[in-house]
Amino acid sequence: MTSKSPAYKAYLKRFIPASVLYVAAVAIATIAIPEDAPLSIPVALIALLPGLAIIGMIWAMGRLLIELDDEYLRMLEIQKALIATGFTLALCSVWGIIELYSTAPRIPLFMVFPLWCIGLAIAALWQKVRGV
Which residues are CB-contacts of 110 (< 8 A; sequence separation ≥ 6)? Predict the structure, then answer.
């Protein structure tokens, strides 16, 4: 990531607060909602808070792609997103089939976005190793 680019600076100004909000929202939901709570409007509203933060992070990533003037940097970001998407789809599909046909532990659906972010980090590392 080129920190000199105004697009990356704007991205960080959006992404970091959304990330902090996500961590805080997960902590609040974990404390406020008892395990196996029945679905109710208050439970749903509290549980939606982390999701709103994730939407903020995704929006920040989308804005980065729109605001990047350098086509090469935009291509690198898109390449990372495609690698992360393939990584996530492959892991979720394979694990879902394992879950379907065995007693393997179930992975909560909310883990898809963190898995995608891991895929993004792997893609960034791969680009760095390649020297791009």
Answer: 50
SS3 of 17-73: the string is HHHHHHHHHHHHHHHHCCCCCCCCHHHHHHHHHHHHHHHHHHHHHHHHHHHCCCHHH
What DSSP character marks residue 89? H
Specify whether the CB–CB gap between 28 and 47 falls below 8 A: no
Q: What is the pTM of this model?
A: 0.86
Query: Contact at 8 Å (CB) between 76 and 123?
Result: no
Reduced to 3 states (helix: H, G, I; strand: E, B; else coil), residue 1 is coil
Distance CA 37, CA 15 (A): 31
Q: What is the DSSP letter of 105?
A: P
Torsion angles phi and psi, residue 102, rounded to 5 = -150, -175
Q: How far apart are CA 79 and CA 99, in angstroms?
A: 30
Distances in whole angstroms, Cα of residue 84 to Cα of each of 44, 76, 89, 104, 125: 29, 12, 9, 24, 12
Task: Render pLDDT for 65-121 as a digit per residue (tens, 0 to 9).
Answer: 999 999 999 999 999 999 999 999 999 999 999 999 999 999 999 999 999 999 999
